[in-house]
Automatic annotation (TrEMBL):
GO molecular function: electron transfer activity; heme binding; metal ion binding; oxidoreductase activity, acting on diphenols and related substances as donors, oxygen as acceptor
Keywords: Cell membrane, Electron transport, Heme, Iron, Membrane, Metal-binding, Transmembrane, Transmembrane helix, Transport
Membrane topology: Multi-pass membrane protein
GO cellular component: cytochrome complex; plasma membrane
Species this protein is from: Georgenia ruanii
Domain of life: Bacteria
Protein name stated in the entry: Cytochrome ubiquinol oxidase subunit I
Length: 449
């Protein structure tokens, strides 16, 4: 058995790697769509500003992809090095989506290279078409990785006889019960993060007075992607929560800090666990039962249905879930503000407060994403394969795992600094004179709304 310190270090290392990589993975899904949308607008309108946006974003995409490839490779090694009990025992069951994801990654890399090299070397429409596989491969890569994670929540496609895995069915395992809602939830989240994160950069520029057509269009396109994804994500999140209630009742109990099974269970927001009770929470009577089943008097299982050693850390899961949901609705409200301005004025919002909030929307989307993964992963604990394999039994038994965690911290610090430095250098590249001077006649950002 691995020492507790090494088990914690292995979990922290995996959390750090996943938490860092997932942001880049989201950009790998949504950013290519933004690049191609800008290029398509340029072809359709014959406006060089759109083409300039696409060219500059493509360079940023190359940086994001390169750094993401490094962090993704680290994660691949960690799966085998840190968790041999998982991959050694269940590799034949769940190895298929990892293999397909590798193929999708190489397709994405190949076509990204073609797309970048072919600027000015292919006819415009052919160049645009060459970028479509980047989007498809990025979405496929996210889909197949998340199917593997979904299997860890709802493992199927095998039997265990005499302590050994038999009758493995990789396709059945890949299309497990949690796969539909978890993959859709993740892909929509990737579009939200991409849209709001890119838009927040241009919101800063607009607040600083850079109101040329380049910055307005770049902001408008990126924010539109996030604003479209936001209401979809709220609906998908509701569907996902209902699925969790059916498939993973203990995780739902942790999400809602429901300590005991209740008929007409309340919805509890916030609060602090003290002396076996949740205190200071905002409580909505019968709310959880109504949301889960549509019946305000239905019974929702609580955490007492499993022994204490098999319960996830309640407060971490509960607060992460509340933060994720709260930020989702804040982003939804900001998206509605954007949509109303576009409908009424056919222009960007004029209020400086909108852009201040848009600056925060990028980090808020990332925080919501990270909280969602905390709910997914920590809410499954102490199981790595729910109901079959404990995390403590899957970790590498070799002593000294904490050294790997400590050694990896400077690697991620370096990658973060290097990525930010290169992206800032790209952002500071001067705009062509004609674009920089093209400022439309509209109410300046900072005026009254």
């Amino acid at each position: 058995m691995t020492a507790l310190g090494d088990l914690l270090a292995a979990r922290m290392q995996m959390a750090m790697s996943l938490g860092w990589h997932i942001v880049l993975a989201c950009l790998g899904v949504g950013f290519p769509a933004l690049v191609l949308l800008a290029e398509w607008r340029g072809l359709r309108t014959r406006d060089e500003t759109w083409t300039l946006i696409a060219r500059r974003w493509a360079k940023a995409l190359a940086v994001v992809f390169a750094v993401g490839a490094v962090s993704g490779t680290i994660l691949s090694f960690e799966m085998g090095l840190l968790w041999p009990g998982l991959m050694g025992t269940y590799g034949e069951v769940i190895g298929l989506p990892f293999a397909i994801e590798g193929i999708a990654f190489f397709i994405e890399a190949i076509f990204l290279g073609i797309y970048l090299y072919a600027w000015g070397r292919l006819p415009p429409r052919a160049h645009l078409l060459a970028g479509l596989p980047i989007i498809v491969a990025g979405i496929a890569s996210a889909f197949f990785v998340v199917t593997a994670n979904a299997w860890m929540q709802t493992p199927v496609g095998f039997r265990v006889e005499d302590g050994r895995v038999v009758a493995a069915s990789p396709w059945r395992a890949m299309f497990n019960p949690a796969m539909p809602h978890e993959t859709v939830h993740m892909i929509v989240a990737a579009l939200m993060v991409s849209g709001f994160l890119v838009a927040c950069v241009y919101a800063v520029a607009l607040l600083r007075g850079r109101r040329d057509v380049y910055h307005r269009r770049a902001f408008g396109l990126a924010f539109t992607l996030g604003a479209i994804a936001a209401p979809v994500q709220v609906v998908v999140g509701d569907v996902a929560a209902r699925a969790v209630a059916d498939l993973e009742p203990i995780k739902l109990a942790a999400m809602e800090a429901l300590l005991r099974s209740e008929q007409g269970a309340p919805l509890q927001v916030g609060g602090v666990l003290s002396d076996g009770e949740l205190r200071y929470a905002l409580t909505i009577p019968h709310g959880l039962s109504l949301l889960v089943s549509g019946d305000p008097n239905s019974t929702v299982p609580g955490l007492e249905t499993v022994p204490p050693v098999l319960r996830p850390p309640v407060m971490m899961v509960h607060w992460s879930f509340d933060i994720m949901v709260g930020l989702a609705f804040v982003l939804l409200g900001l998206s509605l503000w954007f949509a109303v301005a576009a409908w009424r004025r056919r222009a960007l919002p004029a209020s400086s407060w909108f852009y201040r909030l848009a600056v925060l929307a990028g980090p808020a989307a990332v925080v919501a994403l990270e909280c969602g993964w905390v709910v997914t992963e920590v809410g499954r604990q102490p199981w790595i394969v729910y109901g079959y394999l404990l995390t403590a039994h899957a970790v590498n038994p070799v002593a000294g795992l904490r050294l790997g965690f400590y050694g990896l911290i400077p690697v991620y610090v370096f990658l973060t600094i290097a990525a930010i430095y290169v992206l800032r250098r790209l952002a500071r590249t001067p705009l062509p004179t004609g674009v920089a001077e093209h400022v439309a006649d509209y109410r300046a950002v900072g005026g009254r709304s």
